[in-house]
Amino acid sequence: MTCRAIIISAPSGAGKSTIVQRLIGQYPQLEFSVSACTRPKRRTEAEGKEYYFLARESFLEKIANQEFIEWEEVYPGSFYGTLKSELDRIRNHGNIPLFDVDVKGGVNLKKYFGPHALAVFIQPPSLAILEQRLRARGTDPEESLRGRLNKAGTEMGFAGQFDKIVVNDDLDLAVEQVTAGIRNFLNG
Q: CA 53, 78, 107: angle at the middle one, nearest 5?
């Protein structure tokens, strides 16, 4: 595996997607890797932009056909994964994949790419602030929000498996720290 990759992971609501969007604007050679998922599309999302939204049966068929680099049942009944075809698409453009994935997906991608990937863990300042952010986002019903918060506590324990940990207390500073890490990785 000689393809380089940038992996950004965090508990839901920590700010990874916002950071990823800023990185794409700064590094034209980075291309967002669109993950596949089985969760319902949010009103602000578009098919093939944020995710490839698949029926559960279709996702399970792709698992059986070994079409994923990695996949995970992130929440009960909600599967997420990285399609091999998506990595091929980005490589064919001559770009470096930029992954915005859940924590276990990030760990699995780091194992897949090894030293050819920079894996960054975006950490919220606290679980209380994470809860405030998730509530302010207003995209999840209470039950889903509780599940995300419970899972976040567990996910924080995976931070040490990443190359770099950035606390997102100040978004501009967090973006600067991630940018510095990417610059060092790409120039190293």
A: 95
Residues 6+ apart with CB under 8 A from 19: 8, 122, 168, 171, 174, 175, 178
Helices 171-187 and 16-26 pack at an angle, to 10 degrees, of 50
Q: Categorize the per-residue pLDDT at 1 as very low, low, confident or very high, splitting at 50, 70 and 90.
A: very low
Entry pTM = 0.88
pLDDT of amino acid 2: 59
77: left (phi over 0), alpha (psi -120 to 50) or beta: left
Whose tokens are 């470096």? That residue is 96
CA dist., res. 35 & res. 52, Å (int):
6
d(CA 187, CA 43) in angstroms, rounded, equals 39
Q: What is the CATH number that goes with domain 5-187? A: 3.40.50.300
By C-alpha distance, which of 139, 144, 169, 128 is closest to 19? 169
Residue 59, both tokens: 């996702």
C-alpha to C-alpha distances, 92 to 34, 88, 116, 169, nearest whole angstrom: 15, 6, 18, 36
Which pLDDT tens digit goes with each residue over 77-134? 899 999 999 999 999 999 999 999 989 999 999 999 999 999 999 999 888 888 887 7
123-144 as b/e: b if 16+ CB within 10 A: bbeeeeebbebbeeeeebeeee
